[in-house]
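[#protein-structures] MJ: dropping N5-carboxyaminoimidazole ribonucleotide synthase here for a structure pass
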Amino acid sequence: MLGILGGGQLGSMFTMAAKTMGYRVTVLDPDPNAPAARFADQHLCAKFDDPKALAELAKCAAVTTEFENVNAQAMRDLAQHTRVSPSGDCVAIAQNRILEKSWIRKAGLQTAPYQVIEKMADIGAESSQYLSGILKTATLGYDGKGQIRVNTLDELRQAFVSHGEVPCVLEKMVDLRGEISVVVCRLNADAIAAFDPAENFHENGILAYSVVPARLPESVQNQARSMAICLANELDYVGVLAVEMFVVGDAGDLIVNEIAPRPHNSGHHTIDACLASQFQQQVRLMCGFAPADTRLQQACCMANILGDVWGDDGGEPNWSAVLDNPQAHLHLYGKTQARVGRKMGHLTVLADTADVAYLLAKQSHSQLK
Ligand code: ADP
Ligand code: MG
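AK: finished. structure tokens for N5-carboxyaminoimidazole ribonucleotide synthase:
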């Protein structure tokens, strides 16, 4: 029996992968309609810090998580009883931008220039060098939430107040030429592998498309993989780790944006385009097995399907826009309510080249509504 904290789409795809490998799964999620509950052997429908539910989870042979803002202490406590990956310490780092950035630099990697702002008095003359910038809350941000663009010291002070004067990071705007991400699978320093970098396109702060292979020189792709592996080693990470990177300036330098201690939206194509998905990797690693081959089998493009493509009257999208293409694969998460901005599913189109896959995915997606 494997346990997972969180039963959203990532937990759901994890559960499917675990079940095909013969495991049984216990999911902890307070939502009675949690997507993973469709497949789980046991759904603990309780709060994430519920002592009874956590005690039940502690009986599992191994426990993992699908979301970033899981209580790191609960992970540490579970680790007293069973195998837990990633560790509570790694999760704590990934969920706090201040810790996260200092670890990225400790690994010898670049981040955007930044200043930690914990109190109003931290905003001063030295803050000017990080303008124009983005003030990001240290914790609880996702899909572009918890971020305010600032151009002047006055705007910075206002933004800090808007954030409720919680600890923040002021990040200088970088000359963004592209965004990529690498999903790393690590058991230990000798058993580590990285999927090919995905080239990511966002709309309204939410990932819209991931194209793989990324249309970047092979040397840059190798560098991205090495950086992600280096970071996973520095953290002594066990499990699946996603590393988001920015491609900056004319030279196309890579800097690390942020990490996620779990499978990532930009790795969903691995279900259809790789021999082992990022979710199968998560199962292997949490059970102490080495990662499977990460090689890409075919060029592809993943497109997210948000609640936006449902009609205002709740009418179903036009699924034949995906399913009429024999090279396209549809994944729906079983969420009952379609809302604007809500991730309801995704589609992956395979093609001979990344360019064609991207084109076809955009075409399918635009015909859904
Ligand atoms: P989230 O947790 O919401 O994913 P990110 O830090 O990844 O937050 O920021 C969301 C998006 O905002 C990024 O994918 C990128 O497009 C843009 N962004 C973030 N930081 C910077 C920056 N320093 N310079 C330019 N663009 C940025
Ligand atoms: Mg991000």
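MJ: nice. Residues 218-234 form the longest helix (17 residues).
AK: one more thing. The two ends are 40 Å apart (CA to CA).
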